[in-house]
Amino acid sequence: MRIFKITILSLFILCANSLFSKAQENLKIKKSDFKIEIKEVGFKDAWKDIKEGEKLFTAGLGTFPNALVYYLKANKYNSECAKLSYKIGVCYLATDKFYYATEYLEKAYLKDNNIADDVHLMLARAYHLNLDFDNAIENYNAYYNSFSVKNLEKYDISVDKYIKECKYGQELVNSPVRVIINNLGERINSEFDDYNPVLHPNQNLLYFTSRCNVDKKDKRLKVDNKYKENIFISEQAGELWRKPKIIENKLDSKSNESLLTLSSDGSKIFLYNGEENGGDIMVSELKKDSWKSPKRISGRILSKSKETTITFSPDESEMFFVSNQYGTIGGMDIFYSKIDAKGKWTEPMNMNAAINTPYDEEAVYWHPKVDKLYFSSQGHNSMGGFDVFVMERDINGVWSSPENLGYPINTPSDDIFFKMDETNKHAYYSSVRDNGYGGKDLYKVIILGEEKMLKLKTDDIYLAWNHIPIDDLFYHVPSEIKVDTALFMVGMVTDSKSGESIKLTKIEVIDLELSQVVATGLTDTAGMYQIKIPKNKDYGVEVTAKDYLFFVEIAYLSQKQVVKSKITVNFQLDKIDVGATMVLNNIFFETNKATIKVESTTELERLANLLIENPTIRLEISGHTDNVGSFRANQKLSESRAKSVVDYMVSKGVGSSRLEYKGYSFNQPIADNNTAEGRGKNRRVEFKVLSK
Amino acid sequence: MKQILLSILTILLAFNSFSQNPNSIENEIKEIRKNASLKYNEGVRFAKEGKYTEAHKKFDQSLFLYSDFALPYLERAKIKIIRQEFDLAMNDVAKAIELNDGLGEAFYIRAYMKLLMNDHQNALTDFTHAIQKGFTESESYYYRGLMNFELGDYNSSLIDFTLAIDKNYDFAYAYNERASSKRMLGDFHGAIHDYKQALAYDSTIIVAYDNRGSCKIKTGDFEGAIEDYTKAFQKDPEYYLAINNRGSAYYQMSNYELALKDFTKVTEMNKEYAPGYNNLGITKIQLANYLGAEKDLDKAIELDPEYGAAYVNRGYAKEFLGKFPAACADWKMAIELGIEEAEKYITECE
Q1: Region A581-691: CATH code
Q2: In angstroms, what separates the C-alpha of A338 from chain B's closest C-alpha?
Q3: Residue B337 counted as domain residue
Q4: What CATH number corresponds to the domain at position B318?
Q5: Which CATH architecture has domain A487-573?
Q6: B316 contacts A454? CB cut-off 8 A
Q7: Element (H or E) spanning B129, and its range?
Q8: What is the pLDDT of residues A72-83, one digit of tens each?
């Protein structure tokens, strides 16, 4: 019976995974440690969980996540058990939810400073993974100090390296690179380790390795308590990847295999096979759309040692591979070979110490277009576990020093199998990060260019005038302009009989609304006058001259469209001669009575003045009516009204001997009694000059 | 009884007789002018009462009597501006200036119309003419200040607004505009003082709250700015710009949750306001919601296809989504639209 020595690609990585390079203590949780005396309820089930968890914990790292499930259930019964907290913390360190480890380990340490010999180491690892480098360094040092001189030989010197990693980590985290790292999602990633992404040259197929169980009957490998490696393939569908399928039978062996790379035309596939020589590289060719059975790669690169990853230059004339064969500087190293003049691969050559370190280098990958080599290393300035590095070959064929790709591509966990695409904008790799799906997951890295400034837009209306209503501000209320609106009334006053001009005739213009004299004038020697009156409106005009009867009239100026500044008005006056008569138009009585109304005062005063200024004249005051009513009644009313006027004159100092009064009823009409207008004119008071 | 005659002369029009002597014609012209003036004054009285239709009629009548009378043209132009009959107003004011080029207010009105037409340079010239011809109202300086501001001459606008305030100490708008001039000249504390004065004289000038807020941002007083923006919004619940600015203040304070709330509100208040979507988009970028950001920036660009900054920002979102060719296309478009800083971004595209 052949006994195969099975190796796993990830084993090299896992062994190299420095999280547990020093085995953690397997503290045994005793009943007495766990049971709460006064809390019987729930203990039985909780203790079962403890026992189940202990079994899985003891089985090894691969089942730490399973142990964690039981431990957490038990923790609900007693969350104050220091040993349980310690174990939960340690289990968390083995998962992608390592950020919970700190809380439990701190709790265990606070409960019991001596909970385990390696408690400071575990705490340091937890802080380290969570980028709390100061606390990590402090605990690494505390761990070192916990060794006495006598047992210092038991101290794992790799802890010194961890401290260096923390210092590198501080530098790298302080100057992060601009990338976005997206988990490829639950279709691709499982709760188990998923790693080594390989894109088909046409970019639409993704190969990767997973350690999930394909079949329920699958058993865990003794070496790490995990399921074996299988290759999966997924097709791209738009932005997403389809549900992966296990690779076709010919490429799937009963052993562990991982797809390493494809030739640039996609016609060859290179696989890692864990059965061959402790791990060798196999190749399969595509014939008629079907892969042939893989064969060991020919040439000098294969040894009895382990060869893990391989990569070719774009023209496939050069290669790098990783091996621990003869000539290694330490652990797994990168070797180089090229096709010689005879078309054969040259003897592999270890890359120099500037590239290989005493620690492991792994996962070489040659950029598909340019002379850039990506690989992962635990050495150089790794911030923990494997970090991804890049080096570039110049035109002289000299490779540059490896450069750490920086945080957040690299973390204190293992970051490995980095594959940049042709555009240098996208890359795929495997990493252990927050909020993954369990173990290692596949991630897509989007490489961003230089920092760009987002442009925020604030918006102000600087000026308020847009908010002013349009007529509020621009509009200035106009002012009236000065216009001389005065009206000149001019004319001549003449004798009504002779036509001769009358000099020194007084003309008074009376504002009828105000009952005020607003302008006066006298005629000159030619009988001419000129009076300036304020504006066009109706005025009363009174004309008086010595030896003449006065004249009163209303000038209806407001009703005229007067656009001129001058109007001519001539007056003719009657001389005071015996027999001359004059109607007193502005004497008013109460209806059917002889009581004089107040508004008659001006006219009465005018008559009184005539009598006073002409002391020799005698007048007859006569009353007249219309023909409405009986003659007798009208005669009586007309006489009474004439007498009222005479009485008024007497009251003003006019001798009664100078006045006679008579009532004529409707015997002396001056207008037609058949019209209202005529009747109005007939109702009147007159005077007649009896003597001079 | 003898009748006394009262006669009133009938109207003699200046144009109805060939036989009149020169003095008589001159007198007739005087009469016509007087009557045109009277009609003008009647119009003025209506205008004072805000009865613009009646006023306009009177000015028409005045011009019917005397068509070379500048003032009715001017007043009629003002009424036409109020009625927003700008072309007709411009004809009237041009006629007024043609008839009397010493009429300062006519230049002022023409300048104002040019201002309305965004012809800032010619408006500035006319406001200056108005002032030179004696129309030195506070508004003449105020509007000239506006034109200087619009033309970017903030030193001159500062002087003009100061002269306007000197003539009218409680001229609230002039304080706001002077504050903005100071702001443009980098005197943020002076600007804050003037905005305060503007609000002291007229607390309805909402933009003064908003502007004061933005000056406070410049002095680092983010809390004070947020208070002012909030006041502006409280006074005018439709003033989405204040919310946009408050969101920007939160954004600058890295308080992206509140910024998101404000910018969302802005886009609800004004669905056509492209900067609102732009700001919402970049806030989502800060919150790592790149797909949401891309959508918002799409909308900003849809609303304003020449919005260069939105292209820069959308390129940013697309870059984070790994859509590099599309990001590059956006940055190239931003360059075409005058965003020079995008030049260095596209070096990555080559």
Answers
A1: 3.30.1330.60
A2: 32
A3: yes
A4: 1.25.40.10
A5: Sandwich (2.60)
A6: yes
A7: helix B120-132
A8: 999 999 999 999
- Considering the domain A180-447, what is its CATH architecture? 6 Propeller (2.120)
What rounded mean pLDDT belongs to chain A? 86
Query: What ipTM did this prediction achieve?
Result: 0.84
- Residue whose C-alpha is closest to residue B209's, from B238, B185, B239: B239
- Checking if the pLDDT of B26 tops 60, the result is yes
* pLDDT bracket for residue A15 (50, 70, 90): very low
Total structural domains within chain B: 1
Per-residue pLDDT of A411-469, as tens digits, reads 999 999 999 988 888 999 999 887 788 889 999 998 888 888 999 999 889 998 877 76
How far A187 CA sits from the closest chain B CA (Å)?
A: 19
Which chain A residue shows the shortest CA-CA distance from B181?
A462
Q: CA-to-CA distance for B3 and B13, rounded, in angstroms? A: 31
Residue whose C-alpha is closest to residue B160's, from A266, A463, A262: A463
Q: Return the number of CB contacts < 8 Å for A and B.
A: 192
Q: What is the DSSP letter of A595?
A: P
Put simply, whether A493 touches B (Cβ < 8 Å) is no
Does the CA dihedral A52-A53-A57-A58 come out positive or negative?
A: negative
Tokens 């440690």 — which residue? A33
Asked if residue A136 has pLDDT above 50, the reply is yes
More confident call, B31 vs A135: A135
Window 127-186 of A, Cβ < 8 Å to B: 180
**Chain A residue closest to B280 (CA)?**
A456
Taking CA–CA distances from A490, the nearest residue in chain B reads B8
- Among partner residues A484, A567, A583, which is closest to B8 by beta-carbon distance? A567
Search chain A and give the residue with CA nearest B34.
A483
Chain position carrying tokens 């008086």: A544
Is B287 a domain residue? no
* Largest CA-CA distance found in chain B, in angstroms, rounded: 120
Residue A226's pLDDT is 79
Is B346 within a domain?
A: yes
Chosen from A239, A459, A548, A624 to mutate, greatest number of chain B CBs within 10 A: A459
Give the structural domain span for B334: 292-350
| Alpha-carbon gap, residue A631 to B209, rounded angstroms | 92
- A214 touching B, CB under 8 A? no
A22-155 folds as 1.25.40
| Of A468-482, B4-18, B244-258, the least confident | B4-18
Q: Which of B40, B48, B275 sits opposite A457 (nearest CB)?
A: B275
